[in-house]
Design a protein that fits this description.
alpha+beta
């Protein structure tokens, strides 16, 4: 799965530009992390919702593609539970809760460095018949 980690860490330029990276991927599970910096803050001085979502989406992409077929998100929902602040480290852990051959369903739990849950994202994807070809 290291090839998939490298492929997505390098290929998802938006996540990479914003300091997010995958740290672990195995079939049905993925983990991504980011440190909240000033660039991630909204006008209220807390982490902007799009930063949480992008981190969760990176983990979602990894977990849904961990079976080797090109899989694309078709629906996501995010629930914010508490704010993250500059200096916090956010960890998104994605698990495939239903591994359907065409429409997998996942839950992504985003926590801070203290293990406190800050948001939950759920999502469905469409798994194609096309093999995910990762260039080495």
């Amino acid at each position: 799965m290291n090839d998939l980690i490298d492929f997505l860490n390098e290929g998802d330029r938006f996540a990479a530009t914003n300091g997010m990276q995958l740290t672990e991927v195995r079939e049905g599970y993925a983990r991504a992390e980011m440190k909240v910096e000033a660039r991630h803050l909204n006008a209220a001085g807390v982490c902007q919702g799009g930063a949480y979502f992008t981190l969760a989406d990176l983990a979602f992409a990894a977990v849904t593609n961990s079976h080797g077929n090109i899989t694309l998100g078709i629906q996501n929902s995010i629930t914010f539970l508490q704010s993250a602040h500059e200096g916090d480290t956010l960890i998104a852990e994605a698990e495939e809760t239903f591994n359907h051959h065409r429409l997998p369903f996942c839950e992504i739990r985003v926590s801070n460095q203290l293990g406190e849950l800050v948001c939950i994202v759920t999502g469905s994807a469409y798994r194609t018949n096309k093999e995910l070809r990762i260039k080495n």
